[in-house]
Write a structure and sequence with these properties.
Pfam families: Sel1, TPR_12, TPR_8. Keywords: Coiled coil, Membrane, TPR repeat, Transmembrane, Transmembrane helix. The chain has 315 residues and is mainly alpha-helical. Among the domains are: 116 residues, Tetratricopeptide repeat domain (Serine Threonine Protein Phosphatase 5, Tetratricopeptide repeat), CATH 1.25.40.10; 57 residues, no CATH class. It has 16 helices and no strands. The radius of gyration is 25 Å and the shape is elongated. The N and C termini lie far apart (56 Å).
Length: 315
């Protein structure tokens, strides 16, 4: 079926052309007859690739409704029907990851990887696997995957050193936002995004390697000065370093861009709690509770509920 799937588009083109020639050109039959032949072929395609057909419905539902739960049943059915559509399988794995079903998610992503996706999809799937390792507590494995990705996506090099330097500088300058101080040099190409640097920055935070955590988070801001998760990263980093003024500055900036970030709201609450400003802390904890929290966040619903119970015992 895998082989047939790869050739099906070619088969379809040949079939449609052959039908047109036979029905219209040779036999001079009515257009309705041609449409009947085409309809039969489309029905056969749906039956042969039922899993992918159902999965595409899931993608459509998710695109229109922005609701993972509504799309989930279609992805699950598609996977059980052995679809080999990488986008469908990866979307299924991502929902499992968000729902904290990490073991299932990593198996799904490995299945996607085994289908030899194109280079950018390959990178995205590997990033998802790295996040699974993070959630399983395997921080070193997660960092190794990201560092390997960064190495694979380094800027192109040339034999002529002078040309190499000029081209690298040009690409780097184009990727840097002029508002962010150029403290670091980005050596990866345009297929490595701000989110990638943000994630590895957070992984280094978990390792308490604050220098690398700051470096990667600031590289994310060099790529996108308004990338709120990178600002949130820096807020959390400086909070862990007990520099609460700097932490406040970055978290406030993150929330100005996206007021509904649960992690930033939660850490703002922690800062005000440290300052013994209970009213402000309570406000931010309540705001955190109203946000959408899933397994991709650094704060859990349990963390928030504990704070609410502590400062709002009647809730």
């Amino acid at each position: 079926m895998d082989y047939l799937g790869k050739k099906w588009k070619f088969i379809a083109i040949i079939y449609f052309i052959a039908c047109y020639i036979f029905v219209i050109v040779i036999k001079h039959l009515p257009l309705s007859t041609l449409l009947l032949f085409y309809g039969g072929f489309i029905l056969l395609t749906i039956l042969l690739f039922l899993g992918s057909t159902i999965g595409m419905i899931g993608i459509l539902v998710q695109s229109v409704t922005k609701n993972d739960k509504k799309a989930f049943k279609y992805y699950r059915a598609a996977y059980k029907l052995h679809t080999n559509n990488i986008s469908i399988i990866t979307s299924y794995g991502l929902i499992l990851l968000k729902e904290d079903k990490i073991e299932q998610a990593i198996d799904i992503f490995k299945k996607s990887l085994s289908l030899n996706p194109q280079f950018l999809a390959n990178k995205i799937i590997k990033c998802n696997i790295a996040i699974c390792h993070w959630k399983l507590g395997k921080i070193d494995e997660a960092i190794d995957i990201y560092e390997k990705i960064f190495k694979d996506f380094e800027l192109a090099t040339y034999d002529d050193e002078e040309d190499n330097d000029e081209e690298d500088i040009k690409q780097i300058e184009e990727s840097i936002d002029s508002n962010e101080e150029k403290e670091y040099v980005i050596k990866t190409n345009s297929y490595v995004y701000a989110q990638d640097y943000t994630t590895i920055g957070y992984l280094y935070l978990l390792k308490k390697d604050y220098d690398k955590a700051i470096e990667n988070s600031k590289k994310a801001l060099m790529l996108n000065a308004k990338h709120a998760p990178a600002l949130d990263n820096l807020g959390q980093i400086y909070y862990e370093m007990k520099d609460y003024d700097k932490a406040f500055k970055y978290l406030k900036s993150a929330l100005e861009i996206n007021p509904n970030m649960p992690d930033s709201n939660y850490y703002m609450g922690l800062i005000f709690e440290k300052k013994n400003d209970i009213e402000e802390a309570r406000k931010y904890y309540k705001k955190t509770a109203s946000c959408n929290i899933n397994a991709l966040n650094t704060v859990t619903r349990e963390d928030v509920n504990k704070k609410l119970q502590k400062f709002n015992p009647n809730l």
